[in-house]
Amino acid sequence: MNAAGGLRQHRDTVGMASSASGSAPLIVWFRQDLRLNDNPALIAAAAAGRPVIALYILDTATRDWSMGSATRWWLHHSLAKLAAALRQQYDLQLTLRRGDPAALLPALMQETGATAIHWNRVYEPASIVRDTAIKAALQVRGSAVETHNAALLFEPWTVKTQAGGWFKVFTPFWRACLAQPAPVPQRAPKKLTPYAGALASDALEDWDLLPTKPDWAGGLRETWTPGEAGAAERLQDFIDKDLHRYANGRDRPDLNCTSRLSAHLHFGEIGPRQIWQAVQMAAERGDARIAQNVGKFLSELGWREFCHHLLFHFPTLPQQNFRDDFDAFPWNPNADHVKAWQTGHTGYPIVDAGMRQLWHSGWMHNRVRMIAASFLIKHLLQDWRVGEAWFWDTLVDANLANNAGGWQWVAGSGADAAPYFRIFNPIMQGEKFDPEGDYVRRWVPELAQLPNKYIHKPWTAPESVLKQAGLVLGQSYPLPLVDHATARKAALAAFAALRNDADQAVGDE
DNA sequence: TTTTGAGTTGTTCGA
DNA sequence: GTCGAACAACTCAAA
Length: 509
Fold this sequence. Notes:
By secondary structure, this protein is mainly alpha-helical. The chain has three domains: about 5-150, Rossmann fold; about 150-185 and about 225-315, Serine Threonine Protein Phosphatase 5, Tetratricopeptide repeat (Alpha Horseshoe), CATH 1.25.40; about 325-500, DNA Cyclobutane Dipyrimidine Photolyase, subunit A, domain 3. Helices cover about 50% and strands about 5% of the residues. It has helices spanning about 40-45, 70-90, 100-110, 125-140, 170-180, 220-225, 230-240, 245-250, 260-265, 270-285, 290-315, 335-345, 350-360, 365-380, 385-395, 400-410, 425-435, 440-445, 450-455, 465-470, 485-509, and strands at about 25-30, 50-60, 95-100, 115-120, 145-150. The protein has a five-stranded parallel sheet with strand order 3-2-1-4-5, with helices on both faces. Helix 3 (about 100-110) runs parallel beside helix 4, helix 10 runs antiparallel to helix 11 and helix 11 packs across helix 16. The longest helix has 26 residues, at about 290-315. The structure holds a DNA duplex.
């Protein structure tokens, strides 16, 4: 069955607007909340007992950080799943429209006689600007607008220091969060009244969200199951198989025991409240190993929360150094080096494995993200925003807050950032966290025949070993793009220059 | 206001 | 191979 095909409605029909606002329809505007459970906008709309219109708008008017290629792929499938679920559960059509929400929403309300609209907030700068204006305009027209929180455990304006400011350090931030009452998810509405009129809807396929020539999405299809059901299954699988060893296992890309919920979370196919409750319940069921690991896992959810709160309070996070002394950092732009990094040809196996995993599957293990990001920034001295942009386009979980927060953290320009001297050694990291080389062998197959001893540093292998492994360095696999020790010294020198600049600036005053 | 303790994820060097 | 110290100085959060 092609769920998307069922969305077509060929007839433009003027809705039967009711004059009695008591039975006038209301709109649920889906955005980054593509689920039925724990969806406060949907729940509130259903509870009103009036006809419900379910709407998704492909926003072509907001230019800032428009979706990357991998997230467009995910969105297509997630919308198809949402449409199918709405139809199956409530006999409700998901109406698809493309354009400027500021124009489309009042038009749809006019068309249908809808007098109220619900949506769940997106806590990103461009969305806030857009939605604030839309809300004001709709209210001027006399419409009721209600917005809700589906995306975060705690509202960004509620987590404050004792002095009333915003946290810039994670640990006290998370302590303050944990002091709040535990967030509780709500179930999907049991029933709701679907809007009876026929509504014109775009066909999902016409949005061209999927790649065609070439179709590079094969690796994504074999790796992911977008949609609310896929998210729930992923969470359950994680709790059953991996939560009990999360604290240590999370650092092992070869073991693959992280939750892999990031993209589901980004699209709101599952919410943080649901995850929170599910792992707490698993811990309470009595498995001591799970109980020991839950705190660590929740703190990762805490980092997601922290990044979102940071972005809310510091909206320039994706573009500008959080610490402005980094504006003087002596980057060394080099298109060839960036290309080698992007395509997984740096000559450092753990970095290349990660970059190829990303290209193939739209995702990279967290530990390897740090190593690969550190390499781009500190070994190659490329601006963190170059890496941020590549991740934005290639990650299925590309999320403005997490991506910006992560890159600034690695660069050392962010909140609570890594100290300048923390420069990952890609060889040592590989040997420590991929000890058997399984991860490298999977993603860099040309190295598969190398013995473990050389898998993370092939250039040190004797000629006979290389020959045995069928490897010609510089041909079938690159030599290291830069020498680790040399690059490390250069990075330290660059950071030293930054400090000197800062001292100079103080001296100038 | 001042003081104090602390701050996700590391590496290198020398004993 | 293992271990502790050094790598800076600063900012943040709270007492």
